[in-house]
Amino acid sequence: MSAPYEATxxxxxxxxxxxxxxxxxxxxxxxxxxxxxxxxxxxNSLGLQPRAVRDALNAELDYWGELGVEGxxxxxxxxxxxxxxxxxxxxxxxxxxxxxxxxMNTLGVNLHLMMVSFYRPTPDRHAILIEAGAFPTDRYAxxxxxxxxxxxxxxxxxxxxxxxxxGTLSLQAIERALAEHGSRIALVMLPGVQYRTGxxxxxxxxxxxxHQYGCxxxxxxxxxxxxxxxxxxxSGADFAIWCSYKYLNGGPGAVGGAFVHAxxxxxxLPRFAGWWGHDKxxxxxxxxxxxxxxxxxxxxxxxxxxxxxxxxxxxxELFHRAGMSRLREKSLQxxxxxxWLVQNQLPDLLQIVTPAETARRGAQLSIRVLGxxxxxxxxxxxxxxxxxxGDWREPDVIRISPAPLYNRFxxxxxxxxxxxxxxxxx
Length: 426
Ligand SMILES: *Cc1c(COP(=O)(O)O)cnc(C)c1O
Hints:
The protein is an alpha/beta fold. It has helices at about 10-15, 55-65, 85-95, 105-120, 135-150, 155, 170-180, 205-210, 230-235, 305-320, 325-345, 375-385, 410-425; strands at about 30, 30-35, 35, 40, 50, 100-105, 125-130, 155-160, 185-190, 215-220, 240, 255-260, 350, 365-370, 390, 390-395, 395-400.
């Protein structure tokens, strides 16, 4: 098969003009650079602001100003049930039943709340399996939970070492770890997409394996939500958590999310409770006995932060209109183009760490600078100066993530052109 891509501005512009999702870019504020738009590849870290957010925020401020406490019951979207206004679209994005998801808190908080219910160590089964090199929060959280239950991370934290060349992990390695340690593993806690390598995991295959060994399964979807079409319900995972400021464009420090599988909707699991998790029909009787609302809602503690939910609600409407399968289709093309450019135009400078199989990655390519740390840092700084915004991971990796809601083929070409220019002028 001949290469479907070309490294010319005419080709990239033609592809952008033919993109059925091209108008979604106009829904976002693209950070400016040198009189034009920057080339923003950092949706894996902080997604861009949908234009409609400002008016929507102002509308809530107006309700507050005009209605005071009555805003809980009046206005277009009464605050009382505000978290429910993001529920259906959130469920769509993660492939869950509406009752299985809730927008609340932040990722780290939700991870702890979920572990309170789903990490129930016993003397025989007390270990947690994570990947080596996990994101700090995840490692700190599981380690502190292990200690909290009186166990020792030395014996109860199993960190799965990479068994593939670029720091990625095969399903076979996970299978081997389960075969060896499965009977003492209480919880398998893995990412949907690994933040450093960009590797995507097969949630369903992992869940099926881990369940065979009697382990509970949770996923951290920080880099997967809004990036890959997920089928969380069908995966069978017990729970999942995520943040919403990355691909979901929920804004800095956005309200995170949690998934609790329907099989646990009525379970009497131990949990840390608050009034907003109480059965919503009797919540305002203010009784002393906690009766959880069925489903993920039952894990809520507090009444939702309305102003913080506004950007998420607006952004999820865009996801609903675009649809995860169309976004994935475009994402495959965009990231495929970026990969092709790196491999064909820049093989002397850059090497892709992220798996080549499209089923094992999302939008992000983690790209190693072959010249080492100093060269890498110099290149990264040059790119930022040039309005090309990726992010840097020590010691020598630049992460570039074309987000299909707002990135263009022309952005990918601009990245490759700038790297070549940097080399030529050095
Ligand atoms: C971004 C990210 C976090 C951040 O956690 P917060 O609680 O939202 O600050 C945690 N874990 C992973 C894997 C992440 O990618």
